[in-house]
Amino acid sequence: MAGTVEAMTMKSLLSSIWRTHSPSSQPCPPAAGRRQLFKFLLLIVLSFASYLFFSHVVVTAVEVKGTSMSPTLTAGDRFLLNRFAYLHREPQRGELVVLKDPETGELIVKRIVGLPCETVLMQNETPYINGQRLPEPYLRKSPRADRSPWGKATVVPRGHYFVLGDNRSRSVDSREFGAITRESILGVITL
Predict the structure, then answer these.
(1) Which of 12, 39, 110, 169 is flagged as catalytic?
(2) Which entry of 12, 15, 68, 100 is annotated as an active-site residue?
(3) What is the pTM of this model?
């Protein structure tokens, strides 16, 4: 007899637990519904804000257009622009950077050739930095003795950089618009 009472008590206990936790047994109070909606909207706002922060400060996807960087980069190539790199260090010679074109405001990709306070001299399409020919292993054409006339020497101002496209004959770069400011460099592309 004691066993049946225990079984009935267990059965009624399970039944009451089921009724208590059943979604249909207790309607959701209006305040709880508003709280759920508020949490959902807050999640959406925070997600959007973190996306904007991440894409403007840390990394952004970029697509190459045009031929000014060929053969290194070709039209349609996609890369990640590391915006975070220059928050803790200065740009280095040879790096591929994305910057705002001083003339059009469009985003362009160029290679840093001259650093602040250096003298850049161009002989045809070959840069000389402080009188020394810059080795450019990233260019596919072999170096040849250049007999063309020397260009005008440019002293890169403090806080500025001299940038060139790898396809020198098809690139609008610092030879046209001069040295660019550090602030116009948005980040670095790593191949």
Answers:
(1) 110
(2) 68
(3) 0.70
Q: Which two tokens stand for residue 39?
A: 């949490």
**Active-site residue flag, 141:** no
Q: Omega before 71 cis (within 30°)?
A: yes
Of 144, 116, 178, nearest in space to 133 by CA: 144
Quote the distance between the C-alpha of residue 18 and its chain's center: 53
Instruction: Sort residue 41 into left (φ over 0), alpha (ψ -120 to 50) or beta.
Output: alpha
Each residue's pLDDT tens digit, 103-149? 888 889 999 999 999 999 998 889 999 999 999 988 876 555 556 67
* Residues in a beta bridge with 163: 112
Superfamily for the 59-189 domain: Umud Fragment, subunit A (2.10.109.10)
Judge contact between 63 and 78, C-beta under 8 A: yes
DSSP letters, 28-47, are PPHHHHHHHHHHHHHHHHHH
Answer yes or no: 110 catalytic. Answer: yes
Query: How far apart (Å, rounded) are the C-alpha atoms in residues 84 and 8?
Result: 67
